[in-house]
TrEMBL record:
This is 4-hydroxythreonine-4-phosphate dehydrogenase. Homodimer. Binds 1 divalent metal cation per subunit. Can use ions such as Zn(2+), Mg(2+) or Co(2+). Substrate binds at H140, T141, K283, N292, R301. It comes from Microvirga subterranea.
Amino acid sequence: MIGPGRNLLVVTQGDPAGIGPELILRAWLHRREQALPAFAVLADPDHLGRVTRDLGWSIPISPVEPSKAIDTFDAALPIIPLSHAVSAEPGRPDPAYAASVIEAIETAVRLVHSGAASALVTNPIAKHVLYDAGFRHPGHTEFLAALAAAPGEAAPHPVMMLWSEALAVVPVTVHIPLGSVPSALTTELIVETGRIVARELRVRFGLSHPRLAVAGLNPHAGENGAIGTEDSTVIMPAIEILRQDGIEVAGPLPADTMFHARARSRYDAALAMYHDQALIPIKTIAFDEAVNVTLGLPFVRTSPDHGTAFDIAGKGIARPDSLMAAIKLAARLGAGRPAP
Ligand SMILES: NC(=O)C1=CN([C@@H]2O[C@H](COP(=O)(O)OP(=O)(O)OC[C@H]3O[C@@H](n4cnc5c(N)ncnc54)[C@H](O)[C@@H]3O)[C@@H](O)[C@H]2O)C=CC1
Ligand SMILES: NCC(=O)COP(=O)(O)O
């Protein structure tokens, strides 16, 4: 056995023309020195074989049933084959592969739901490529919430958190145009997000008393209303409700001064009001270590912090660090789930 547990993780291929396939291969090559837990890949074995050969790497690949994956992992990279064949070339994304990309995600969720896997790790997808194929979810985060919904029930509210040892950030609004942020930002949305983050920091991350910091929206958190009013009319009331819940919350903080090292030591997670307010600081501080983890789901899902990197796909130079961090965090957060 390799790694800390016998629980199987399932890893999706991501966009087959991106760096996902080669990152999986490199992560498997590093399995021993990194003490990675056993994982199986959801992909087309022929495609992954071609990627391996084109890179000139010698990696045994073994198509397996999920129940055989853990025992295979030490000697070969286990692949749970998908029904859609893929002939993607690195760096040349094509909506024709959307069915395979989606099948990988759906199969991973099924395996986690059935108890055959303890958690899932996704490789990056290019949203615009999937949109061209008719995909109607903004990204994995919302798609996974839809897949997590019990029959006849509404999808759970998913929360995106980018986590590293140095900083954890949560964009309250995510993949929407910047101009739509002020109207999308409501007190209810901030409260709901803060409650989910506080609960999951306690339950999944083991923090007995999580401390949240909430960013303002406007420069200087609105400068007492002189540079915008959302900080006092929308964000402050949310902070007061979260405090009434007993959650320790600071804010609204001017976003420009809340991410330096001393400021970061005062909180466990920062709630940011829009995508780049959250992701710029963490990708600047911890690009190779940060992990995207979805909170609010009934299962554990992690992902590297970066995207498909079509510009370097197939060159063998993409760094597997964030994927390996995602695999380790998935094992840590999913460890309580029993293997079948
Ligand atoms: N979880 C997911 O599925 C995510 C998907 N994306 C998707 O990725 C696509 C491309 O997004 P970009 O903004 O260009 O970001 P990107 O992260 O793919 O690339 C940005 C820059 O970082 C480099 N880079 C990224 N990962 C690297 C690695 N592991 N090793 C070395 N260099 C690396 C790239 O070569 C590029 O120069 C978009 O279509 C977006 O939708 C972006 C973020 C997350
Ligand atoms: N910028 C983060 C990102 O795009 C991740 O999206 P998701 O596919 O994990 O929802």
